[in-house]
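Hey L., structure's done. Input below.
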Amino acid sequence: MDKVTHSAEPHHEHDKRQTEIYYVPAQSNWPIVGALGLFLIAVGAGLLLQPKGMLSHFGGFVLLGGIVTVVVMMIGWFHNVIQESLAGLYSHQMARSFRQGMSWFIFSEVMFFGAFFGALFYARMIAVPWLSGASNNAMTHEVLWPTFEAIWPLIKTPSGTETQAMPWQGLPLMNTLILLTSSITLHLSQLSLEKNQRTALIVWLEITIVLAIAFLFYQGQEYLHAYQEMNLTLQSGVYGNTFFLLTGFHGLHVTLGTIFLIVLLARIAFDHFTPRDHFAFQAGSWYWHFVDVVWLCLFVFVYVL
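Output:
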């Protein structure tokens, strides 16, 4: 098995600077660039969902501009951090700061998805019984929606249109198996890095990236099937809203995670990591496992239950 035989700098210099310096990076413009990109994505998506017209057409350009801005931000920010690391500017204290920052970032993502799962819980456990006339709300039931039936998923909307619920079999189940497998292959890749096995490291990471791309492809196929054959869209009442918001934002996180993994593969090609010094790879692994856990919760609460 091939070995990782060298790193970006000698180990004795690396150990020396670990105990001597704490690097304070200069002010960066990338956070505000990223915030601008996310703002454009939100505005563009909102305009794109408007009824067909000039605003909807304009929204596509705004959304594309936001996506391009975020991609530019990621490339620029990754480049800066990589250059600082290769220059030997990071110490043990900086490494702890990175770990704390990544931990808080994942915690913020947990809260982000927690809000959407909370909305799903509210709709199913509170709003649906309330609309059905439970808890002494019979008058509300008669006034707001007399024909309402307290069942989930809600495939009927107040306007009278009807859709279909997405079954958990087929593509959703296959995507679940794909993501679970990708977590295993990524873990094997990290173990190979820690054991200094370069060939296994690259192969397992490449398999993980292929599985990630396959997940995104099949999710796109699922969306096409939902829109074209099931009449399940964002306008399909609260069920359609929660379904596409949860799966869509998860798909966005899978996309970002895939980009993260591709960057890691490129850095491995340039021997940026050693068995002792590879937190960037570890951070990517944390993020990917988090994305997989979110999908498992999503699969159970959105598709199965």
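The mean pLDDT is 83. The longest helix spans residues 92-131.

-- N.
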